[in-house]
Amino acid sequence: MSVTEFLRQRAVEVAVAGSYSLPRWYDCEGKLRTFACRTKRVSPFRMIVDVPVVGKVGERVTSYFQDFGEFQCTISATLKSGFLMELEMTRARRAWMSEKLTWLEKKQKDDSVQELRRDARFVPQVSHTFLTLADGSSHSCFIIDASTAGVAISCEYDPAVGTPLAVGACVGRVVRKFDNGFAVKFAEKQSRDDLIRLIVRTPLLQSA
Questions:
Q1: Stated pTM of the model
Q2: Alpha-carbon distance 115 to 121, whole Å?
């Protein structure tokens, strides 16, 4: 199915954090790599996900989402920074998925659901930005979540712990690695009001 056709179907615009793996993407130890992703539009049959590494039409994808669980999927269409996945599941699970989406849609409209901690991690509306390394090279990356102290990143580039870099205009250092990416601690704590403006930037010259 094309993205245009899916946009005409009944679906829920919802951002749910997840992870995915693509065939033939391995790390230096020969293990299959996983990347972070986030849903943008979901139905019980298919979903559009925002991703750091776009697969190819027809490729099989294994994915996992916090609110939905694990899926075996096939990419049916690609976008600049994401793809449309066809979900494989039983009729019973599809019915459960429909009920879950109805609940999530209602939750989105609940004004009582608010972020209470000023410095808590949050998911920015803009998912993509660039890393700049000490040698001036840049790499596109996916923002998993952020706080005033740092940011979690998923990226094709795989830096070592201790690597100095800038996320947008915020200078920091890689302090931890995890299955889907790595954490960057800022050299200076940022203002929550300025954070998105600073970390979401377009490089003058992309070299990666």
A1: 0.70
A2: 9
